[in-house]
Amino acid sequence: MYFNQSEMRKEYQNDFPKLAADLKAIGVNTIFTTVYEGGKAFYPSRVMHSSEPKLNLIEMRGVMKLNGIRFAAICQIFYDPDVILNRSDLIPVDSHGNNVYVDWQKMICPTDKEYRQYKLSVVKEVAKKFQPDILCLDFIRYPTTWELVLPNEKPDQIRDFCFCNRCLSLFTQKYSLEFPDSLIETAQKAAWILENHGQQWTDWKVDKITRFVISVRLAVERIDPNIKILVHTVPWSSEQFDQAILRIAGQDVKALMPYVDYFSPMIYHKMIGQDAEFIHDLTAELYETTRKPILPSIQIEASNEFQDYTSNEFEQTLIYALMTPSAGTVAFNWGNLIQIGTNESDRQARRLVLQKVFQ
User: Fold this and answer.
1) How far out from the chain centre does Cα 204 lie?
2) 2-89+104-151+202-358: CATH homologous superfamily?
3) First-to-last CA distance in the chain?
4) pTM, whole model, 2 decimals?
5) What is the pLDDT of residues 198-232, one digit of tens each?
6) Which of 14, 103, 130, 314 is most exposed by smallest CB count within 10 Å?
7) So where are the chain's domains?
C-alpha cells in the first residue's frame, strides 16, 4: 500500500500504531512511502537541505516492524523540484530545444555528476537510517510524463530528453562525434543525432540509468545485504511506442535485472487508457523477460476524467494485478480509502474489496 505524508499529517497526526492497526485490518503487509520529497527529508538528515520537524518516519518504520508490516522506503531519484531553483542547468531539454515543464513533474537531467553523487548519498543515508525491507527507486528514468501518453499516441510525439549542452557534449565525446558546422540550434543537433546515431543515443541513455542502479546496489549491499532493491518502471510494453521504454525512458529491464530484486510497473490503467487486463499482460511480459518478482502498482480510484471506475471494477483490477506470475501488488494510495466525504460509501466499498482480496 502506498502512503502519502499528507495523510499522516491530516488523518493520523503521527499516530503510527493506529496506522498499523488500520493497515492490518484490511490485510496490508507492506507500506510504501516516500521518505523525502524534493530537498526535504521526513527524518533527521545530515545530507538533505532540510528536515520536516514534525514528522519522523524512522519512528513509523519501527512501529511497522513491531506489527509485522514491511517498510518500503521510496527514494525519488531524477525528480527534485527544489534543486532546480538554484541549478537551472539541470532542467532537461527536449529534442525541439524546449525546456519548459508541462506539468508538476520537475524532473532532472540524469547526466550531472554532482547531482548523481548527491542522490546516491541520500540513498545511502536512507539505507543506513531506516534499514528498510525494500528500497524503492522512483523516477529512475529519463523525463517523460507517461501518465499523459495514451495507447494511440504516435511514437514521435512523445517528448525525447535530454539534449542540454552537457548531454550533447558528453554524448559526442563518448562516441568521438562532431556536429556538422551548419548545425547551430539544439533542435538541429538533436535531429542529427536521432537520424544518424539513434541506437547509440538510446544505448547511452540506458547506460546512464543502469549505472546509477548498479551504484545503488553496490552501496546498499555494503550497508545491509538484506535490503531488497525495487525499481519503478513506466507502464509500457517492450515494443510499445517504438520501444519507448528504452528510447524515451532509458529503462532496460534486461540490463537492470542482475541488480534489482523487484520491478514495479506503474500500471494506472484508467489513467493511461488501458483496460484492466493490460495489468496482467504487462506483468507477465516483465516476468518472462526478467524472471524477477513483479509488483504491479495499481490505482484505487480513477482520475477525474474517468468517473466510471466502480468498486466492482476495482475488484477486477485487483484480480488481474494478483494473477500469476504477479508477486503481489502496490495499491495507490491509502488516502483514497480514508478521506471522509460525500463518497464515503464508495470508499468503504473499496476497503471491503481490499479486505476480501488480501485476506
Assistant:
1) 21
2) Glycosidases (3.20.20.80)
3) 14
4) 0.95
5) 999 999 999 999 999 999 999 999 999 999 999 99
6) 103
7) 2-89+104-151+202-358
